[in-house]
Amino acid sequence: MRVTKMHGLGNDYVYLRPEAELDWSALARQVSDRHFGVGSDGLILALPSDVADLRMRMFNADGSEAEMCGNGIRCLAKYAVEEGMVPSDIESVTIETLAGILTLQLFRANGSVAAARVDMGPPSFDPASLPAAVDGPGPVVDHPLEVDGMQLRLTLASMGNPHAIHWLDGDVDDFPLERIGPLVEHHPLFPNRTNFQVVQVVGRDHVRHRVWERGTGITLASGTSASAVCAAGRLTGRTGDAITDSLPGGDLHLSWDGRGSVFMTGPAARVFDADWHEAWS
Predict the structure, then answer these.
(1) DSSP 109
(2) Are strands 11-16 and 42-47 parallel, antiparallel or unpaired?
(3) Rounded CA gap, 56 and 67, in Å?
(4) Kind of pairing, strands 150-158 and 92-97?
(5) Confidence check: pLDDT of 66 > 80
């Protein structure tokens, strides 16, 4: 199989155009392995769609299928242009996902797609949409949760996939994310597991953010997480309408006016193309 490695701010995925139906969960686990495979945070399939320019399926490194990936979808738009799935001069692309149909505005540099602005859709603060085992319609703000002796206060948001956000008083780099992240992801509060964010507010227009991604672990960036942080920050009055979110892999630029869609802008990079020869059965 011909595969392509791409990344958005270091959040890296293997891309392919399927020619037959395979066990994609097993393949995702194989290609994601950073010693015996290609090495990635997951696998993304570029598929035809009856309702959009193309369709996205996304599998985490553990083989579980996710609704959407913000960094991954920007790279998918670049991939679709460069693979001839859409016209080379197209200015925007629609992509069908399990979180709905998303529209991406493309930005070019030296003739190739270098970045995209994604209409991520409106956030939801209804715990049933995550889902989360919390009574009432939401929003859920500063929900107390103790894990491994640490007291967390979570703001819950959905961007078509679930997010639990803990606001920090100190430096985001000092938080033991590798220890606390998997405990939050698998906590009974979240029947379908959750993505977990720790956020340091630098100012009304700037946050620093680290993420434990459901099904993958710590990643360098997450577009849906950044979108949830943008919406939750405005909801709770910690930030304004527009923010720069500084993640370990780089900066994303986001905005939410409190009513409609969250908009996210960030880069997309193609790393290499290769033939996958690993025995598969």
Answers:
(1) E
(2) parallel
(3) 9
(4) unpaired
(5) yes
Residue at 8: amino acid letter: G
Radius of gyration of the chain (CA): 18
pLDDT value of position 281: 44
Collapsed DSSP state (helix, strand, coil) of residue 85: coil
Q: What are phi and psi of 103, to 5 degrees?
A: -110, 135
Instruction: Give pTM, 2 decimals.
Output: 0.94
Rounded CA gap, 96 and 94, in Å? Answer: 7
Task: Using alpha carbons only, give the angle 261, 265, 271 rounded to the nearest 5 degrees.
Answer: 135
- What Å distances lie between residue 102 and 159, 201, 211, CA to CA? 12, 28, 23
Q: Which amino acid is at 99?
A: A
Contact 224, 84 (CB under 8 A): no
Q: Report d(CA 131, CA 116) in Å as an integer.
A: 29
Q: What percent of the chain has pLDDT over 90?
A: 96
**Structure confidence at residue 277 (pLDDT):** 85
pLDDT tens column, 198-236:
999 999 999 999 999 999 999 999 999 999 999 999 999
Which sign, positive or negative, has the C-alpha torsion 70, 76, 77, 79? Answer: positive
Phi, psi of 50 (to 5 degrees): -90, -10
Token digits of residue 152: 């967390």
- Residue 203 corresponds to which tokens in the numbers above? 């100012």
Which position has the token pair 């701010």?
Answer: 9
73-95 pLDDT, tens per residue?
Answer: 999 999 999 999 999 999 999 99
